[in-house]
Amino acid sequence: MNVNKIIYKPIGMLIGVLGGVLATTAFNKVWGALGPGDEAPDATDKKATWNQVLLAATIQGAIFGVVKAAIDRAGATGYRKVTGEWPDD
């Protein structure tokens, strides 16, 4: 295994956790502005409609995907600036 991958692994994990917190916060704010309730419905929420559940899942998936890609890319770019190496090299 490449040394860069070994060194970057714990850094990447920490960045991923922070990204999850950021994505959750962003989703809650977006859902609060767009959704019919304060909290997004779970798929098994008896009172929620199909449209509400699927809309919440779509918005959440999009936000988490974008945040994960942005955080991962920023982490790899920052690692390269510090070490001069790309984490996957």
TrEMBL record:
Q: Any idea which UniProt keywords this protein has? A: Membrane, Transmembrane, Transmembrane helix
InterPro entries in the record: DUF4235
Question: Which top-level group of life is the source organism from?
Answer: Bacteria
Q: Name one Pfam family in it.
A: DUF4235
Mind telling me which residue stretches traverse the membrane in this protein?
Answer: 12-32, 52-71
For this entry, the protein name equals DUF4235 domain-containing protein
